[in-house]
Amino acid sequence: MEWINDLIFGSGVAHAIFVLALVISTGILLGKIKVFGVSLGITWILFVGIFFGHFGLGIDEHILHFVKEFGLILFIYSIGMQVGPSFFSSFKQGGITLNLLASSVVLLGVVTTYVIHVITGLPISTMVGILSGAVTNTPGLGAAQQTYFDATGSQDPSIAMGYAVAYPLGVVGIILCLILFKSLFRINIAKENEAISNTSVSKMTEAQMFSLQVHNPSIFGKTIHEIKELIDKEFVISRVLHHDSETLAIPLPHTVLNENDKILVVTNLQNIELIEALIGQKIDMDRSEWNKLDSQLISRRINVTKSAINGKSVGQLRLRNLYGVNITRINRAGVDLVADPRLQLQLGDRVTVVGSEASIANVEKFLGNSLKRLREPNLISIFIGIALGVLLGSIPFMFPGIPQPVKLGLAGGPLIVAILISKFGPKYGLVTYTTMSANLMLREIGIALFLACVGLSAGEGFVETIVNGGYKWIGYGAIITVVPLFIVGIIGRKVFKINYFTLMGLISGSMTDPPALSFANATAGNDFPAVSYATVYPLTMFLRVITAQLMILLCL
User: Fold this and answer.
1) I need a labelling partner for 375 at 20 to 30 A (CA). Which of 76, 225, 285, 332 fits?
2) pLDDT for 318-369, tens place per residue?
3) Are residues 205 and 189 in the same domain?
4) φ, ψ at 124 (rounded to 5°)
5) pLDDT surpassing 80 at residue 123
6) Which of 373, 402, 421 lies at the terminal end of a domain, its last residue?
7) Rounded distance between C-alpha atoms, residue 382 and residue 432, angstroms
8) For position 399, what pLDDT does the model report?
């Protein structure tokens, strides 16, 4: 039975994998437990790791360090790939205000942490760990640990212990703030729904279909190409019903519009008034009526699966001239976009094409439309990105007044590169598409490995730390959680008049806290909290990682 003893209490690779698997699987099972509808999720892996470590079930120090850092890279890189496409656009349509408020939460948290450090005399490394737990930010914990090791050549277990102690109340504290704001601001859910539906950014920019009848004499006899030059807005004329011949046609650039012709326009709510004013009045004629007029024309959604199409604009494909079809909409990540000629296609986009059966069959061959191709992972972009991220994270930057050079590290470097690659990669022919399930799998494996290693390394002295005064850290963490949220929440609602649903997403995103977002979505019954969460999440995540490093370097 010696082999069993070696497997459980040994020091080899098999022992390390066995212990990690036990910690992760046990933690995931416990994470399914909910108390008052709230669960700590995979954070249970951290606590199980602490439990195992406390009883001496650890793994080799070098293996532990490698697995922890590699897990962090996988986790942070997959997050960057997910939020990258929306990172730059998040600064539009009110995103600047939301990101400024979220940045204020980060800054106030740092200030509160430093004040507690000065008053209590706790080491700044410990306080950064408490800060990371209080704001439920695991990458910040990883960045702080790595920066401390780079600066001193040793590990400080109190960083992970502070995180573990402060995290549970951090999750609960964020949700309690959301509940408190509902009472404090006397929120009426029905009124909030009505208000936000009138100002919804996604509703205003998402592609929608309208029927118009040509009534403006100034455009009688003009071609569609000439009309589009007059209106510098995103819109597509999907079909034309000529009044004189009663024939339905796929519009081409040289198609002429005459009085009383009916057209089906694809655009968004922001542009429809201008288009209506120039062309003619809106009529009550839905898509089904258009479909009945000519059975020879069909509409079909085709998946872009050929790598050669990746990064090319709709205009460059010249599908209308080559195949006699019309692209009306492009669905990307569940959102319908107007098929503007300047819009660049990406692998995984679903293109809505209108034309004859034969023409659409040719377009399917041209674009790929292979679901099997989409299921194949594009590993080259992932590992090129990780290599570039590690390279960027290793570059030292010197700042006046800071004795040690600042590095983006294994958290910040991959995060920035992932955001840039996912946004600009398709423009240069790099295939960055990956399914949501594949991205989620990569992310969950990474965070599970990281949390397990952090727990195992912190477990040895955890109980002793709590008994010898560590219980006070829970209170410090609660202050760091509540004070910034309370201040920014009041400013956001009273000064900037932010809708309650948007405010919930802002608060959840500023703390990078998925359980709080889940609670907000359940309360709102719509996706507005998720939209504002995604708007502030990339910048907040970046700031959490950078500030954790700066606090360590400035105070060591």
Assistant:
1) 76
2) 887 777 787 878 877 666 777 777 777 877 788 888 877 888 888 888 888 7
3) no
4) -65, -30
5) yes
6) 373
7) 8
8) 67
Instruction: Return the structure tokens found at 355.
Output: 């034309």
- Name the helix (H) or strand (E) containing 118: helix 95-120
Q: What is the DSSP string of 490-529?
A: HIIIIIS---HHHHHHHHHHHTT-HHHHHHHHHHHSSSHH
Q: Are residues 28 and 153 in the same domain?
A: yes
Helices (H), 247-297: 269-279, 287-293
| pLDDT tens per residue across span 304-317 | 878 778 778 888 88
Q: What pLDDT shows up at residue 340?
A: 77
Higher model confidence: residue 149 or residue 193?
A: 149
Quick check: 346 and 424 in contact, CB under 8 A?
no
138-177: string of b/e by CB count within 10 Å (b at 16+)? bbbbbbbbbbbbbbeeebbbbbbbbbbbbbbbbbbbbbbb
pLDDT above 70 coverage of the chain, percent: 85
Check the CA dihedral 47-53-58-60 and report its sign. Answer: positive
- What CATH number is associated with residue 291? 3.30.70.1450
Q: Which pair of structure tokens corresponds to residue 471?
A: 């219980």
Find the domain containing 330 and state its range. Answer: 201-373
Q: Are residues 238 and 338 in the same domain?
A: yes
Number of compact structural domains in the chain: 2
- Per-residue tokens: 89: 């656009």
